[in-house]
Specification:
heme binding; metal-binding; Globin-like; mainly alpha; oxygen carrier activity
Length: 127
């Protein structure tokens, strides 16, 4: 029996491309997230495609160019609150819906993203 990576199970580079293209317009326009996402969307999208490819067991594109992902450290300069975590995940769910990503692989992928998003929180919500 051949083992398939989550990357292969979701449809590889083509699905990652579609997901990132569906996701970032949502993030850039979301009122809670917009302050964090300024500048060149294409470069942010390129890095996200590389990261998600590696995150799901595909080629190590991100590490090859930038070194170990160390995502929490890379995100420390940004105020990531529980509200922003929730908004980011909502945008990702909408993007997954939009591209028709379904089934157990979607659920497993989303659960891993929830874990990563939780680790990224570094600032409490304003009271």
């Amino acid at each position: 029996m051949e083992f398939k990576t989550p990357y292969e199970l979701i449809g590889g580079a083509e699905t990652i491309q579609k997901l990132v293209e569906a996701f970032y317009p949502k993030v850039f326009s979301h009122p809670d997230l917009k302050p964090l996402f300024q500048g060149d969307m294409s470069e942010i999208m390129r890095k996200q495609k590389m990261f998600l490819t590696q995150f799901l067991g595909g080629p190590t594109l991100y590490s090859d160019e930038f070194g170990p992902p160390a995502m929490r450290a890379r995100h420390m300069p940004f105020e990531i609150t529980p509200t922003r975590r929730k908004a980011w995940l909502a945008c990702m769910r909408e993007a997954m819906d939009e591209i028709g990503l379904e089934g157990p692989i979607r659920n497993a992928f989303y659960e891993r993203l929830e874990q990563v998003a939780t680790i990224m929180v570094n600032t409490p919500d304003p009271s």
